[in-house]
Hints:
By secondary structure, the chain is α/β, with parallel strands linked by helices. The protein has helices spanning 45-63, 129-132, 166-169, 171-176, 201-207, 217-233, 250-261, 289-295, 318-323, 343-359, 394-407, and strands spanning 76-83, 88-96, 104-111, 120-125, 180-185, 243-248, 265-271, 330-335, 381-386. 52% of the residues are buried.
Amino acid sequence: MIQAFIPLLILAAAEPALPEPAALPVLADWPDPLTAIDGSRITTAEGWKNQRRPEIVRLFGHYMYGTMPEATGPVTAKVRYESNANSMWVREFDVSVGPGAPVIRLLLVLPKQGNSPKAIFVGPNFNGNHAVLADPGIAMTQAWVYPDRMNSKDNRATEAGRGQGLGVWNASMIAEQGFGLATFYGGEVDPDRGDERGGIQPWLRSKQAYSPEKWGTIALYAWAMSRVLDVLANEASTAKAPVVAVGHSRMGKTALLAGAMDERFAIAIPLQAGCGGTAPSRGKIGESVKQINDRFPHWFNSHYKAFNERPEKLPFEQHHLVALMAPRPVLFANALEDTWANPVGQFEVLRAADPVYRLLKAGGCDTTTMPALNTLSSGTLGYYIRPGKHEMKADDWKVFIKFTSQHLPKGK
């Protein structure tokens, strides 16, 4: 049963302080996305847009992901490399999010003919743009990289890793199908090691007040995805193309958050995103809130740690994050052996978001039972599970392209 959340401190004026986690009531069941903080029931699209949706955005920002950075100035992009070889139009940009900010390199792959793509998949990668394609013109990232991945050495990328991610991002398949890919290395935004060194984090903190209640790394990655949209909106070849937020694992959490917070994303496709993303925080299978906070304390803000032992005190569940995407399509994709990501719980998260989509007359889940293996449930809230483990590969991209094709705006 979904339950209403009514905090001890009711919102009466314009955004007074929310209660500290210790003061929140325990909720035996998942909170209802259509019950407002003041206890009123949301029954209209206007009520969702003007009252409940902004409340949920604020709740996630306060208790979990943190508030994203403020605007830092005009986003600029300079083409540093371009190629029309191998049936793809490849460009890499040096992107700055504000005066004096460290460069983030954005890799853009489009169909060779240069026509506007049907849609563009946007997401952060784990290893650097040089691993996405073997093209020697793509810059080798100079940022910290994960140890023992893609032939890295001493936490630095090497030439031996160039093109090692071809089977992960499948850029040639995407381009051949008439779609585009825009990706950047997450470590150039914020190295995933739990300190403030490297990336744009030191620069951001020098420009605006920061505290642990503000953004975690997941929110910062999502903010960077929105800055990619700023770049794409100013490029003639991409300005009119719908954009799809996509990512795997922790970057899947990022993709869903980015889509939820930035309505310019037409679709969100988080793959195997698990706890802190697509799986319920109250789930009893796979990773728990305590485990994810213990291992990756920098991903979320400081308030989220208060729920380590009592996730049932959270004033939301992850179906609220899905609901923020409404009426836009969302696909949850999983693998059978990836029980750590709780694939069954993820399906229940989608089902719990369904009432918001129905309220907005946007469809929803087209099934009440979890689809069979290799079967795409392609309602507005789609679900897919395949055999295999925790990874992103060509079989996943075939489903991403199929789902996106089914839900593109008319004329695309």
